[in-house]
Each structure stands twice: as C-alpha cells, then as structure tokens.
Design brief:
The protein has 329 residues and is an alpha+beta fold. Helices cover 35% and strands 19% of the residues. It contains 9 helices and 11 strands. Strand 1 and strand 2 form a beta hairpin. It binds flavin mononucleotide. Flavin mononucleotide (FMN) binds next to helix 2 and strand 9.
Length: 329
C-alpha cells in the first residue's frame, strides 16, 4: 500500500456512507483507530415507528460495511471483517482490520465505481426481461456473502397482497405517516432524508409495485409501471442481529452488481414494517430461509436522482469513547 493510511480510511468511509438506508436515515457511526474501524448502530437514527427493533437499520449498516470493504480492496488493502453483535454489546455491529495487501482486480474497480453510481430508482421500469444469466450473477453475489437471493415466482400474488396490506395499514397509522413525513419530500441539498426529486410518479393503477405513498410526487403526471416487476428476496439461513448485518452485506453486493450492469433497483419494504405482514412474509419464505428485504430490479429509463449524505466527519467518533449510558463522549 503506497497511499497514506488515513487517506485510504477516509476514502473507504466516504464509500461506506453512500449505502442505502430506510428514508436515508443513515443509522451508522464509525469508530476509527488507525486501520481499525468499528461499525456501530446509531440508535438515535433508527426509525422508531417503521423499524422499532432496528432490523432495517442493521441491514443498512451491513450495506455500509460492504461499501467499506469494496473500497479498501480497491485501494489495495485486504480487510478482515468480523460481524459482531451479541448481547454484551448489541450495537457494535462489525470490526474491520487490515489483513495484509490486496492485489486489485477488475471486479474490485467495477464494484467500487458502482458505490458512487448506485441509487434507488422509484420510476417505472421497461417491460424488458432481466436475462437468466444476469439473474444468476445477482444470486452468486448474495451467496458470496453467505446469503441467498430468491427471485419471486409462485409466491408473487401472496407477496403482492402482503405489500398492499402493509401499505394500507401504514396509511391508516398516524405515527407512521408523521415519521415518513419527517424524512421525505426534503430539499435536494438535505444531508439526510429523501428529497422530492427522488420520488416517483404516481402509478396509473394499483399494481403489484405499490411504491410508498411518501415516495411518490403527486405533482408528476401518472405513469404506467411494469406489469410484473422482477422481485427478489434476500434470505439468510439464520435470524437475529448478525444475520441482519450479513443480509445487508449480501443486499449491497447484489445492488452494486446490478448497478455495474445497468440494472436499476428499488425496495419494497412495507411488509417488514408491520407486525402482521412481517409474520406473513417470514412464513411465506420459511422453506427458503429468513427473508430480510425485497428488491425490485429492472431496466429504468430516467436519469439518476441523488440523495445527500452527512459528511464523514459527522459520523466518525473517536475509538473507545463510548460512555456507560451508550452515548458518545
Ligand atoms: C433496508 C432498506 C429498506 C428500504 N425500503 C425502501 C422502501 O420500502 N421504499 C423505497 O422507496 N425505498 C426504500 N429504501 C431506499 C432508501 O429510501 C434509500 O436508500 C435512501 O433514500 C437513500 O437513497 P439512495 O438509495 O438513492 O442512495 C430502503 C433502503 C433500505 C436499506
């Protein structure tokens, strides 16, 4: 490694914060000491209504971890990654240390470039099939992180019903609506939350896709969405906090791989955010593993709509400075 360590780490953290998170809440903190980087869950940024148990927040931190790893490899550092959360320190999610040098390959550069090009695409996709060979690449990406990616097939109608049911229940929940309103329709320059420019057009009919109401721009003309979107579920063999971090690693490797072949992606998370539909989706995919998130994949035809991020110095805390009360000193 010829570059200075602090430049390498700064670059890796800049990649980490480009990870997706629900409502762009960015629920992460990084404690840095030389080449030792701890990833912490930031409880203050967990969505208390939509995600009270922080499932989605830990998935997001797993995605940030993957970006970090991809960036380090691309800079010639071989990272050693330990996924950590346990009962004694539940919010310390992962530790990354240096495990020697890495010979940079084309794939490292491809994924590292995708980190800064990936974004959530909330517009209609073309009715163009994602070829089987490309889908197989995505499934391999998930399995590289010890997870599975299942393309929804016979479960389609059942899953669509769960998405619509959750959306309906959330629409009638004042606390949920208030939380969504706080985080969405922000100004384009906002360092967190979802700007209106990243919202999609209202659909011309109630299709399967059911994008979140808070992620639609009512002032855009209605548009037809694809008839049968390609949906994929990220699954792990086990459940619990560590499995959620691993699901985030896998999800992000899939998203970056998709970005690298110009496949657009978005999320359908509503069923994971309502207790009854969460049980329903867990049951639906039980034979395959523990479901964590549903991705919508396809070919989009609009320019990127970027969301902001807090600067790295806002999310880095000095190592070993966490107080007994869990707060940072
Ligand atoms: C676990 C998880 C769940 C998400 N759920 C949704 C969702 O249901 N609907 C949606 O439009 N976006 C969803 N998102 C995407 C975020 O809103 C998006 O990542 C964030 O606004 C940052 O924007 P970007 O992905 O374009 O960088 C989710 C992201 C994560 C990580």
């Amino acid at each position: 490694m010829t570059r200075s360590l602090s430049i390498v780490v700064d670059q890796a953290l800049a990649a980490a914060v480009r990870a997706p998170s629900p409502h762009n809440s960015q629920p992460w903190r990084f404690a840095v000491d030389g080449d030792r980087i701890e990833i912490w869950l930031d409880r203050d940024r967990v969505l208390t209504v939509a995600d009270p148990e922080a499932h989605e927040a830990r998935i997001s931190c797993g995605a940030a971890l993957l970006n970090l790893v991809v960036s380090l490899r691309c800079q010639g550092v071989e990272p050693r990654v330990e996924v950590l959360p346990d009962e004694s320190e539940p919010d310390l999610l992962a530790l990354v240390t240096r495990d020697g040098n890495h010979r940079v390959a084309v794939e490292d550069q491809t994924l590292a470039d995708a980190v800064f090009r990936r974004h959530t695409h909330r517009r209609p996709f073309l009715d163009r099939t994602v070829p089987a060979g490309v889908r197989a690449t995505f499934a391999r990406a998930a399995s590289r992180e010890g997870a599975g990616l299942h393309f929804v097939d016979t479960e389609y109608a059942h899953l669509a019903a769960l998405v619509r049911r959750a959306e309906f229940l959330q629409a009638g929940d004042d606390a949920f609506r208030a939380e969504a309103a706080r985080w969405t329709r922000r100004h384009a320059a906002s360092p967190d939350g979802v700007p209106l420019s990243a919202a999609g057009p209202p659909p011309d009919h109630d299709g399967v896709v059911a994008l979140r109401e808070s992620h639609l721009d009512p002032d855009l003309p209605v548009r037809a969405y694809e008839q049968q979107p390609l949906l994929a579920v990220v699954l792990t063999p086990d459940s619990g906090p560590a499995a959620e971090v691993r699901a985030g690693l896998a999800m992000q490797r899939v998203l970056l791989t998709a970005t690298s072949v110009r496949v657009a992606t978005s999320f359908l998370s509503q069923p994971f955010e309502v207790a009854s539909t969460r049980d329903g989706i867990t049951e639906l995919f039980r034979p395959l593993g523990r479901p964590h998130t549903v991705l919508r994949l396809g070919y989009g035809y609009s320019a990127a709509s970027w969301t902001g991020r807090r600067p790295v110095h806002d999310v880095v805390v000095p190592a070993g400075r966490r107080g007994r009360d869990g707060g940072w000193r």
